[in-house]
């Protein structure tokens, strides 16, 4: 392709404060529609906003973690527009004096490190939510006034995959800060993308298209991939790319036009008259900077260096702060990092995904997992049986691996006499595999081991099985 994509992302993150940005209404997901409102967030005449200090400090925390310069003075503005879920007909946001500017996020993409500039991070309030039914649309104002961070990247992203990697990295950073759960299904993280194409080597940007309605990071990547192809095809035919907003259709896997943008929207910003100019003291900035936790990139490097973990394992583990904490707690009990990692990114993650849970919801203490791992390492049970024991432990929280192994008679068979009987049957039933092994096909041995494991319901000791099989096959 003769064209280079230029992509900028606007990410909105709901902060997990107990109350809203400018009033005392609770912030809770899934409550009865319109049950969490008051005169302030509904914009009744005479109702005055008061800034949520925790939301302000959370915003500072994110800005500092993204290497932004904090403004000494910041103010709020009214962004004026009409929409059914915006009862005041304006949104309290920030315009010319945002909270922070000029940061960056370091991402790893296609095995290289890239700095993506962060233009600004500012604090605002969220709008309500429209619910579209067959013949009508309803509005839920519960979300009105929820503290919202807008994180605007520079147009320095040059592929759909880079955009995906940026979003994954940004989400992980925010979750490490514990200021938002970043759940796109709940709408606590939302993303719009701006994309244009230009000829390779050209500095001038092409016509920009805005993409909306993407409810997952995969959808963002797919939408950008489609839009890159669409715009490249237009340009290759000397057709004009129209400046417009397009929506992503997740079923048809294509974008379609929502509205054209002949000119930028005029939101008629002016200073919010009911909120003062805020001066941010250096002491507060320093206090929050010192409170920042170890961030994902630093933790990745430490896991590789201190625990000698392969980069692949470490990258998976640090994507979830809870999983990384769990790994380190396990290591304190049983200092075999790679073995613990194999279990976490294998069977444990598989159970998390199938149960749609996070590690902290599994109710599996690090000591309980280590007991299970040790039972495999000591030859009490096989890896195959251990996975079933793990499921049983998760289905019955608090029950130990040893008690499940004993109750269900799952102990590994190491008795050579019993194994000899099973092996004899397997050799009789699989003469072709015996012949293959004798003709030099090493894989045939593992097939025979697998058949023995199957006959023994996974309880045969695979190491002893291999030894007996090799001895038997020598004498065939």
What structural keywords apply?
476 residues, alpha+beta, Arc Repressor Mutant, subunit A, 3 domains, nine-stranded mixed sheet, three-stranded antiparallel sheet, 16 strands, 41% helix
Short description:
The protein has 476 residues and is an alpha+beta fold. It has 3 domains: 282 residues, no CATH class; 114 residues, no CATH class; 59 residues, Arc Repressor Mutant, subunit A (Orthogonal Bundle), CATH 1.10.10.410.
What's the topology here?
Layout: E1 3-14, H1 53-65, E2 69-70, E3 73-74, E4 77-80, E5 90-93, E6 100-109, E7 112-125, E8 129-132, E9 137-140, E10 147-153, H2 160-177, E11 189-199, E12 209-212, H3 217-236, E13 244-249, E14 254-260, E15 270-271, E16 278-279, H4 282-291, H5 296-307, H6 311-318, H7 321-333, H8 337-355, H9 366-377, H10 383-395, H11 401-407, H12 416-429, H13 431-438, H14 443-455, H15 462-474
Parallel strand pairs: 12-13
Antiparallel strand pairs: 1-10, 1-11, 2-6, 3-16, 4-5, 4-15, 6-7, 7-10, 8-9, 11-12, 13-14
What does it look like?
By secondary structure, the chain is of the alpha+beta class. The protein has three domains: 3-284, no CATH class; 294-407, no CATH class; 416-474, Arc Repressor Mutant, subunit A (Orthogonal Bundle), CATH 1.10.10. 41% of the residues lie in helices and 20% in strands. It has 15 helices and 16 strands. Helix 6 (311-318) packs across helix 8 (337-355), helix 7 crosses helix 9 (366-377) and helix 12 (416-429) crosses helix 15. It starts with a strand and ends with a helix.
